[in-house]
Structure formats: structure tokens, C-alpha cells
Specification:
Layout (H helix, E strand, L loop, with lengths): L2 E6 L2 H10 L4 E3 L2 E3 L3 E5 L5 E3 L2 H4 L20 E3 L4 H11 L4 E7 L4 H13 L6 E3 L7 H9 L2 E2 L4 H29 L9 H17 L4 E8 L4 E5 L10 H11 L3 E14 L7 H12 L3 H13 L19 H12 L5 H9 L33 H16 L5 E12 L2 E12 L2 H8 L25 E3 L2 E8 L8 H9 L8 H6 L11 H10 L3 E4 L2 E4 L1 H9 L2 H4 L1 H15 L5 H21 L25
Parallel strand pairs: 1-4, 1-7, 7-8
Antiparallel strand pairs: 2-3, 3-4, 5-6, 8-9, 10-11, 10-16, 11-14, 12-13, 12-15, 13-14, 17-18
Helix pairs in contact: 4-6, 6-20, 6-21, 9-10, 9-13, 9-15, 10-13, 11-12, 13-14
Length: 623
């Protein structure tokens, strides 16, 4: 009986798998055991060929050679990692290897990495698929017990291949066309350009905003305060003289309480984390970029084996995980910090539809701690922060609602009405868990907010004297610039920027990019000089603004990309053919070339760029 070749996505993952499979003998670029040979890629080893590799004429950028639409897309080895590809090629064709196991990341990109290697090496041997969500020893063993036939993932591969080819066709053609037309190197992408458009649009709103002054009148009733309100309960007064008149009229006067309203409100526990929500939270709480959060989460998954697969877009667990949930809570109970919050759950674990829902689990379930040995003491400070978020959220979802009571007190003095609000927490519920377990970067000073005041016991018809009055000067604020947190949210929910109601409904499940690619898209926009970071804010550069001016609406609109993401997921589900999808991409490429060639915005001139690392040529003066 021959051996089985296992191909992982990274050396670190291969080592973990080899350990479980008892493949201990070191070979060149692999680990060898009695039954298995475990080798690895280093991320992508294979990519799509460059235009000039199809035809020498494409070497020079020229409008006459556009659009570039190869009949069949060709693959090529990535130079940097060619040696590892040779090692894989050699093993795949060895007589002693009977079959293969694809053990790359369980998702669209992981599938593409393995299949491109399989294609370029012209391998014909049968292969199986390892599909796991956690890197613990038990999860790997379980995965090997439940291997699937590799062909069951053909549709996922087709979807990944279409994504890769669509990005190449749009990016390669549009970048050349607009660069040639506007005499500036303009990088254009299927997802990055509409993402940039969101930021440019927001900046336009900010620039067009004119701040207005307005006033509020605050009364002190001795022990608590209230704001003047009009009939619609608005507090804003546009003219200072009108505000001063209210102040003069009511100061020192008795005020009768006309109504006391009490309402109990409750907030359910939040959903578990998917990657996008984890990135947003890390940006809000710790100022981490989306890429930094992804890198840390990947390390916690691969190296530390403390969280499950991070590149997920699901915030739910599946029905068959109930046993795992209990053992994970038991693991957290063994950690001093988490014990007080894990212990009460061991009596009764209530799994609601907000936690377990098979219909809402995609390729992977939500991010949770693993049920392996958890060692938080060995983590770096940043890893500790991300793990604390995942662990706290995992425990918090099983806790009761956060319950509070909002009291509104209406008072009247000299025919003028005032409103006081106060909040009393009845039960902290899940919020107590997150407050106790999650470190915050900076303790924000609580804004003086009338809702947070403690109100004394008050009854209708009671009379209070207005001890003093204060005129509050306010100013309207422009929309906030995007931070990575708010941009990730906008990318995920890009459908809300679409006018067409039917399409908006269709786009509920498809945003700009995927959880796995959004961080790279933001980094790309920064690298090519379309965006700049200012503190937590992302701001467009002049080059970024001008690019959005010159590309057509179809390229800027999240609608186009949202339709494609929807198409790609339809391919993965077998509801759309590869041919139909790629035909629409080719038509779109031709439209972009025509648009660039028309020179609609010939008046737009891009800023001259300094070549990095080279000194600018200057006119010498003297020697």
C-alpha cells in the first residue's frame, strides 16, 4: 500500500498535522511518516500569468492592444516560492504516492491554493478534503476521521477561480486603460475602487457641511437637571435671544411635575464574533487596523490553537456543537480570570437561536475559544487582548439580557416645558461579563449626559423650584470620517448604499469583498496612495478623489461588486454557471475600456508623483 501526500497551506499548519499523523522524519520541504507525507504551500505558490506571457505585444502598455481577454487563463509559478512548488510536484508524481489530501484553509481561497497547485503540476491522482475549524489535536484527528471526496468541493473551487480571473481581467485592463488615458499610474480593482468611492463620498459630505450654532436651556431643579423642550420634544433653539427669553422667564420660578413615565428596556446579548465584527471591535477598543487583527487572530488559531478558524462570515454555531460548547466553557472555568463567569453556566447552558442556528452557519461557524488546553499566560499583550474579546463574548452570549429602566420626568414653569431623563440598571446580565473581562485601551471620560443622572423619587403634581438656569451653546457636527471599524461595517453592508429596492434585498448577504479579503483591500488603498491614516480616521488623498471622478458610476458603485459577490456565492451553491458569470465580466471589461478611451474627464489632471527612493532631478546652480 502506497503513501498519502497531505498538502497544508503553511509550514506551521503542516507541522501540527504531521504531529497528529506521526510523520516525524524531516525531508526537504516535507515531513515523512509510515503512511503519510506532509508538505505545504507558503500561501499562494501559483498565480495567473501576466499579459506579456500570453503575447509579447502586451509588454508595452498601449490602447490598441486592449482589452486583454485570453481565451483560457494560464497559470504560472510564483518566482519567490518556486522551490517549494518543485518539491510538491516531485512528490505528487512519485509512484509511492497513491492519493492526496487537500489540507489548505477551509474556505474559498484555501481551495484555490490547492487546486492551482494540482492544475499546474498536471496531477491526476485522487484527492480528499480535510475541512476543520480548529487546529487542536482533537479537531485534526476528527477531521481525518471525516475526510470528504475532494470533488465535493468542485463548486467552491469554480467560485474561487472565477473570483481570481474576474479580478485579473478587471484590474489588468482597467488599470492599463485609465493609466494611459490620464498619464498617471492608476491602480483599479473590482472591490478596492467602490470601497475608495465610499470614503471619497463621505469626505465630500464633510467638506460640503456648514456648521450651525444653536442653543439649549438647562434648568437645575435641585438634585437633578432638565432641558427645555418644544412641542415635538426637541431641545434645539436656533436664536440666542429666544433662549435668553426662556431663561429669564423661568429662572427661580416654581415648576410643576406634569408627568412621570417609567419604561423597562432590555438589550439581548450580542451575537458571537465573525471576522468583520472582531476587526471592528479591535479597531474601536484598541485602535488595531483590520490587518493587524487578522494577523493576531490567525496566530491565535494556528500557533496558539486557542481560537477556532478566524476567516469566517458566520456568527452562529451548528447544532452538533452543543457538546463542544460545554467542554469549551469547562476549559475557561479552569482559568482563574474566567472562572467566576464560566462556573454559573455549567449548571445550565441555554442555547438559543441567537447562538445555535444551522441555517446561518456558512463554511465555518463563529469564532470561539477552542476546547483544547488554553494558556493565556503565554500570549503577547496584543494576542491577550484579542483572545479576551473572543472568550468574553463566548461566555456573554449565554447570560441574561441587560435590563434597565428609563424614567422621563416632564415639568412645566411659566408655560415652558422641561424634560429630565434618568436610567437605573436593573440587571447587568451579559454586560457584566464583557465589562469585567475585556481590557479597554483608554478609559473614556463619560460625557455629561442627562440620561445618566440619578433621579430622585418624583411624583406628578409635585412642585420643585428652578434653582438656576444655564444657556448651553452647541454647534452642529459634520458626518464622521470613516474609521476602519465603520468602513468594515459599510463594506459588509454595502447593499444599503443601493437605490434599487429589489437589488438591496438581494444584496443582504453580499457586501464588498469577503471577511478574509477586506483587511487586504484597505491596506492596498493605503499602499497605492489613495488613502491616508490620520489617527483612527481614513481620509482620501487628492489622487484617490480624482480617480473616483474619472471612473464611471458602474465602477464606483457597490451595486456592481455586490452583484458579483452574489454571483460567486451562487456558483458555489450550484445556482449559476461559470460561463454565465465570466461572460458578464468580459462584457464589463469592454465597457470600461470604451469609457477610458472616451476621455470623458480629460479636464482632470492627477498630481505628479515623486518616485520613491530616488532623488528628484533639479536644475543645478553653481558647481
Amino acid at each position: 500500500m502506497g503513501k498519502i501526500l497531505v498538502i497544508a497551506e503553511k509550514p506551521s499548519v503542516a507541522r501540527d498535522i504531521a504531529k497528529v499523523l506521526q510523520a516525524k522524519q524531516k525531508g526537504e520541504g516535507c515531513l515523512i511518516g509510515e503512511r503519510y507525507v506532509v508538505s505545504w504551500a507558503v500561501g499562494h505558490l501559483v498565480t495567473l500569468a501576466e499579459p506579456e506571457e500570453y503575447d509579447e505585444k502586451y509588454k508595452k502598455w498601449n490602447f490598441s492592444t486592449l482589452p486583454i481577454l485570453p481565451e483560457e487563463m494560464q497559470l504560472k509559478a510564483i518566482k519567490r516560492t518556486r522551490d517549494q512548488l518543485k518539491i510538491l510536484h516531485s512528490w505528487m508524481h512519485k509512484r509511492e504516492i497513491d492519493s492526496l489530501i487537500c489540507a489548505t484553509d477551509s474556505g474559498r481561497e484555501g481551495e484555490l491554493i490547492f487546486r492551482y497547485i494540482y492544475e499546474i503540476t498536471k496531477c491526476k491522482k485522487p484527492f480528499q478534503r480535510l475541512w476543520i475549524s480548529s487546529m487542536t489535536e482533537e479537531a485534526i484527528k476528527e477531521g481525518f476521521r471525516a475526510l470528504k471526496d475532494g470533488r465535493e468541493y468542485d463548486l467552491l473551487y469554480t467560485s474561487a477561480k472565477c473570483r481570481s480571473e474576474a479580478d485579473w481581467l478587471v484590474g489588468m485592463n482597467a488599470t492599463r486603460a485609465y493609466t494611459l488615458q490620464y498619464h498617471a499610474l492608476l491602480s483599479i480593482g473590482r472591490v478596492q475602487t467602490p470601497t475608495l468611492a465610499l470614503i471619497v463620498e463621505r469626505q465630500k459630505e464633510i467638506d460640503a457641511f456648514t456648521a450651525e450654532d444653536y442653543f439649549e436651556v438647562q434648568a437645575d431643579f435641585g438634585g437633578y437637571t432638565g432641558l427645555w423642550i418644544d412641542r415635538e420634544e426637541h431641545t434645539r433653539i436656533d436664536r440666542e435671544d429666544a433662549a435668553q427669553a426662556i431663561l429669564a422667564k423661568t429662572n427661580g420660578k416654581p415648576a410643576t411635575i406634569t408627568k412621570v413615565e417609567k419604561e423597562e428596556k432590555k438589550t439581548p446579548p450580542p451575537l458571537l464574533y465573525d471576522l468583520t465584527e472582531l476587526q471592528r471591535e479591535c479597531n474601536r477598543k484598541f485602535g488595531f487596523s483590520a490587518k493587524k487583527t487578522l494577523d493576531i487572530a490567525q496566530s491565535l488559531y494556528e500557533k496558539r490553537k486557542m481560537i477556532t478558524y478566524p476567516r469566517t462570515d458566520s456568527r452562529y454555531l451548528s447544532e452538533d456543537m452543543k457538546g463542544k460548547v460545554k467542554s469549551t466553557i469547562r476549559r475557561l472555568q479552569a482559568l482563574e480570570e474566567y472562572a467566576p463567569y464560566a462556573e454559573p453556566l455549567m449548571q445550565e447552558i441555554r442555547c438559543t437561536k441567537r447562538i445555535i442556528d444551522n441555517a446561518k452557519v456558512t463554511d465555518h461557524h463563529a469564532i470561539i475559544p477552542t476546547d483544547g488546553k488554553l494558556r493565556p499566560e503565554g500570549l503577547s499583550e496584543d494576542e491577550g487582548k484579542v483572545f479576551s474579546l473572543v472568550a468574553a463574548r463566548f461566555l456573554a452570549v449565554f447570560y441574561p439580557y441587560y435590563r434597565y429602566e428609563v424614567t422621563k420626568v416632564y415639568a412645566e414653569a411659566e408655560q415652558e416645558r422641561f424634560l429630565s431623563k434618568g436610567t437605573v440598571v436593573l440587571e447587568e446580565g451579559w454586560q457584566a461579563v464583557e465589562k469585567a473581562l475585556v481590557p479597554t485601551a483608554t478609559k473614556k471620560k463619560k460625557a455629561k449626559n442627562e440620561e445618566e443622572q440619578k433621579l430622585p423619587f418624583l411624583q406628578e403634581s409635585e412642585v420643585r423650584t428652578i434653582c438656576s438656569m444655564e444657556l448651553l451653546r452647541k454647534r452642529t457636527k459634520p458626518p464622521a470620517p470613516y474609521t476602519e471599524s465603520s468602513l468594515l461595517s459599510a463594506m459588509e453592508n454595502a447593499g444599503r448604499f443601493v437605490e434599487d429596492e429589489a437589488l438591496k434585498e438581494q444584496m443582504k448577504d453580499s457586501g464588498l469583498g469577503t471577511p478574509a479579503t477586506r483587511a487586504a483591500i484597505i491596506e492596498r488603498l493605503l499602499t497605492v496612495g489613495y488613502l491616508t491614516r490620520k489617527g483612527k480616521n481614513l481620509l482620501p488623498t487628492e489622487k484617490g478623489r480624482k480617480l473616483i471622478e474619472v471612473v464611471p458610476q458602474e465602477m464606483r458603485s457597490p451595486q456592481t461588486t455586490g452583484k458579483w459577490e452574489k454571483g460567486l456565492s451562487s456558483i458555489a451553491k450550484g445556482k449559476m454557471t461559470e460561463e454565465r458569470f465570466m461572460a458578464s465580466i468580459r462584457r464589463y471589461v469592454q465597457f470600461l475600456i470604451q469609457d477610458a478611451a472616451s476621455g470623458r474627464r480629460a479636464d482632470v489632471i492627477f498630481p505628479e508623483e515623486q518616485v520613491r527612493g530616488k532623488r528628484r532631478k533639479t536644475n543645478a546652480f553653481g558647481k
